[in-house]
């Protein structure tokens, strides 16, 4: 079970932390928000309670496992959750293992960014004859996804391979371009429920298909999320991790701490911070309140990697502006550990001999946490006893629910993202899409341009 420690969010552990009075005063507000979110039955809750998504994955499991590679085509919420799952639950050298070593599961690649060097390198790695392409887009209209879809489809056609034998779509049940092509060409298409936004969709087929292709225990993942949801629904704030996450960030925001740093002390869990970054940023960064006033709300998520970023960011976190809270992610027991041998006897190195790398990592986490606390900089810890599917499922649910609670507390809609539209429209216009010719984007007055 995932555990949480909020001690260093509070006085007296951190000077300038949350006081007892502030905590007591805020609890009813947060409990009310919990009640409201539970009653609203958001899409990210419904999806884990609906068995049909897991069934859809099971139904195609044999077909999926007949391939050697899975290429996931998607961006933002249509890829970040799957990337986080893959990085957390497979060893770093997964794609270099033999099929036997992978127990028959698939190598996995992602086409997210439209960086030609990256895309070309992925395509060089795979043989289309033994590859399944999962084209994932809630809207079915995202330019990056549709560009990659056409590239891989072109590749299949050049090789004389039938697209419907190598492509699966994951998209809205009714709307969008991918759905249209799916029904016209009988391409298999799994569903993203209409009320489930991309950044909340990791526990739908969006994350479940890639997870099952690499052998993740999908049932454990969903069980973890379901059990976490039970705790998320608890109106007793101290017993509810999502409520505590929301309460702490809400109260620290009031104290001017508007930056949320997520810092896993684990390379395998680093991509969880990427997933969280989109969730927190797109959900909470809003111009208008629910009543239509301009509020320009939001908390800025930042990712950092322990211990690497101690040697890059920590100076700023310690002595720079007091505008951050830090969330440490700790792993209690790694799958593997490495012994540091005792080679030298000199005092400056001998203390390391005979210790394990995990001991050093843990000591550095504590050192960072305590030094920040001593300097009045608040933090919290999320503790993974081990890295496994069940706890990853829990993590997703706790943070999705906490994000929905923050939406309530900040009085904004956490489920839309109107701010990304204008950029998309300008791109369409620049790329010559019909009906977007009229989009205006005035050239800037030239000031300093160095050629
Ligand atoms: O799944 P889609 O519709 O392709 O969208 C991808 C991403 O693009 C966004 O709409 C932002 O541009 C995200 O909210 C979403 O996760």
TrEMBL record:
CDD domains: SIS_PGI_1 (cd05015), SIS_PGI_2 (cd05016). InterPro entries: G6P_Isomerase, Phosphoglucose_isomerase_CS, SIS_dom_sf, SIS_PGI_1, SIS_PGI_2. Gene3D superfamilies: Glucose-6-phosphate isomerase like protein, domain 1. Transmembrane segments: none annotated. It catalyses: alpha-D-glucose 6-phosphate = beta-D-fructose 6-phosphate. The active site is at 282 (proton donor), 311, 424. PROSITE patterns: P_GLUCOSE_ISOMERASE_2 (PS00174), P_GLUCOSE_ISOMERASE_3 (PS51463). Coiled coil: none annotated. GO terms for biological process: gluconeogenesis; glucose 6-phosphate metabolic process; glycolytic process. Pathway: Carbohydrate biosynthesis; gluconeogenesis; Carbohydrate degradation; glycolysis; D-glyceraldehyde 3-phosphate and glycerone phosphate from D-glucose: step 2/4. One of its GO terms (molecular function) is glucose-6-phosphate isomerase activity. Its main location: cytoplasm. It is found in: Cytoplasm. Its EC number is 5.3.1.9. Pfam families: PGI (PF00342). Keywords: Cytoplasm, Gluconeogenesis, Glycolysis, Isomerase. One of its GO terms (cellular component) is cytosol. Belongs to the GPI family. Catalyzes the reversible isomerization of glucose-6-phosphate to fructose-6-phosphate. This is Glucose-6-phosphate isomerase. It comes from Pseudothermotoga thermarum DSM 5069. The gene is pgi.
